[in-house]
Design a protein that fits this description.
Strand order of the largest sheet: 26-3-29-28-27
Shape: globular
Strand content: 35-45%
Distance between the termini: 20 Å
Length: 403
């Protein structure tokens, strides 16, 4: 007899034994389930989402495996180190996880970086240089960690990237730390200036950086720290355009280059394939660095009406990461404007797993749990999902288990 757990993991690996999620449909009969033909695709119900109530077709049958949401660390707004809910954050942003499953948090409004041990103990990283509540960092948004344990921080308000070694040595890795910045300056290679660096992801050769205000995706070569632009045409509110990109030293791409509007989260889903949450286009963008093409995955376009159904689109999503464990090959998104967590496959199909499009702070199963503007997200080696629940000043944990 095949257990529900095996069926669930088979589905996450790409098998459609349980539910043809993501396929086009014209009725529930095409999906083989009740109330799951949402918009124009089969929505996920059954083994991965519990019956937490109706919210645009995002819930499924009772008694099945469910994604369970609990509070891992944090409580009220503040700067306190401590264990679990005794610790405090202030609008935490991006998350990153190292090989030992230590979680690093860009504690945005506290102007510091926090580290959370696997047992939930929260400490301030490089506290002497960047104490929580200080001004050494200015609204840090992005964080990444390399194979040596060094932590990279997008010092967003100061327009640069900082590096904190495993020994606690702090240096400027890229950019010029100031409060000016600009989308582009005609300076020799390497280009030293960022304008609002936001999301970070490390690959073996590069650190890729999104510039949410300048509408760029930038690169920094790790070997010599040379910098350039991978994609994007620069400042402004240009609508989404797919097109080309390139590892060039220019500030702005060519005439056929892709455009973004608020690129924020970035993740390497597979070698040479980047996913970017194009926040103000409410879109998910795919960048293939070999041959360098940018395309929009799935549906996009922000809602025009307050009551518009956004169940099958990302709404101003800021965080994305690559999956581990049973989520390998998937993207996991902090769907910020929809106050939920979704899994996305290589084609851009969305699978909501936790939270509802209503703000809240409740722990629980599937759509019985609530978030408030989740911003950062990371997955450990076991497939456990950690979420920076920014509006609640907490780090939440999402795990797959029986209710």
């Amino acid at each position: 007899m095949v257990t529900r757990a095996l069926l669930a993991l088979a589905f996450l690996s790409g098998c459609t034994l349980v539910n043809p999620f993501g396929l086009e449909c014209v009725s529930d009969q095409n999906c083989g389930c009740a109330n799951c033909c949402i918009g124009y695709r089969c929505a996920m119900v059954g083994p991965l989402v519990s019956d937490g109530g109706s919210d645009g077709g995002e819930s499924g049958d009772a008694g099945a495996l469910a994604w369970k949401v609990t509070t891992f660390a944090g409580s009220t707004r503040g700067t306190q180190d401590g264990v679990g809910t005794a610790a405090q954050f202030s609008n935490p942003g991006a998350l990153a996880i190292d090989a030992a499953d230590t979680i690093y948090v860009a504690d945005t409004d506290n102007n510091c970086v926090r580290a959370i041990a696997p047992d939930g103990t929260v400490r301030t990283l490089a506290a002497a240089r960047f104490p929580c509540g200080g001004t050494g960092l200015r609204n840090p948004q992005g964080v990444a960690v390399d194979e040596t344990g060094a932590v990279y921080v997008a010092d967003t308000g100061n327009n640069c990237i900082r590096r904190i070694s495993a020994a606690g040595v702090v240096e400027v890795f890229a950019g010029v730390c100031d409060q000016q910045g600009g989308a582009c300056r005609n300076t020799p290679d390497p280009l030293p200036v960022f304008a609002g660096p936001f999301g970070l992801v490390l690959t073996p050769q590069y650190l890729f950086v999104t510039e949410v205000s300048a509408n760029h995706v930038r690169w920094v070569r790790r070997s010599d720290r040379a910098m350039g632009t991978l994609a994007g045409q620069g400042s402004g509110s240009a609508v989404r355009v797919d097109g080309t990109c390139g590892l060039t030293n220019s500030c702005i791409g060519g005439a056929s280059g892709a455009t973004f509007y608020g690129p924020s989260g970035i993740a390497e889903i597979s070698p040479g394939v980047l996913f970017v949450t194009d926040s103000y286009n409410c879109a998910l963008r795919k960048i293939v660095t070999s041959g360098c093409a940018v395309q929009t995955l799935g549906r996009s376009g922000c809602p025009l009406l307050v009551n518009e159904d956004t169940s099958m689109i990302l709404r101003n999503a800021f965080g994305i990461c690559s999956g581990g464990g049973p989520l390998l090959g998937k993207g996991v998104v902090a769907d910020t404007g929809n106050h939920r967590v979704v899994i996305v496959d290589a084609a851009g199909n969305l699978m909501p797993i936790a939270g509802t499009r209503m703000k809240g702070s409740a722990d629980g199963l599937g759509t019985t749990a609530t978030f408030q503007t989740p911003t950062g997200i990371a997955v450990d080696s076991m497939g456990r999902i950690f979420v920076a629940d920014s509006g609640n000043h907490r780090i939440r944990l999402v795990t797959l288990e029986a209710p």
